[in-house]
Design brief:
The chain has 2 helices and 7 strands, in the order ββααβββββ. The longest helix has 10 residues. It is flat, with a radius of gyration of 18 Å.
Length: 119
Amino acid sequence: RSSPDGFVMKPQREGGGNNLFDDELKAALLRMPPAERAGYILMERIRPPTLEAMLMKGGNVESGPCACELGIYGLFLGDGERVFLNQSAGHLLRVKLSTVNEGGVVAGFAALGSPVLYP
C-alpha cells in the first residue's frame, strides 16, 4: 500500500495497454473485490537503464532519457505429449521515453528501434 510505484498491475488478456501504475494501481486494489483482482497480475516494476535518444512519433521529434524493450517471439505447437513446432519467430525493439508508463508503438507511446549487438 505504501509503495505502489514499485509495481505494475496488468490485465490477463491480449492486446496490451490498460496497465495500472502508481496511485491508480493503489486505488484499484482497494476498490476491486477478490474475483476482479484475479483477472490481473501484480508484477514488480522493472526500471531499465536509460540513454538520451530522439524519437520520431507521428511526425514529431521527442527527446529525453529513453528505455528499450526487446520482445522475442516464438512459435510453439504441441498436443501435450508431442512437440510439432518450436522455433524463433522474430523480435521487436520498442524505444520509449522513460517517463511513459505504457509501451505500445501503435498507440503512440513508443517508437520502433533496431538492436545492434556488439561482440
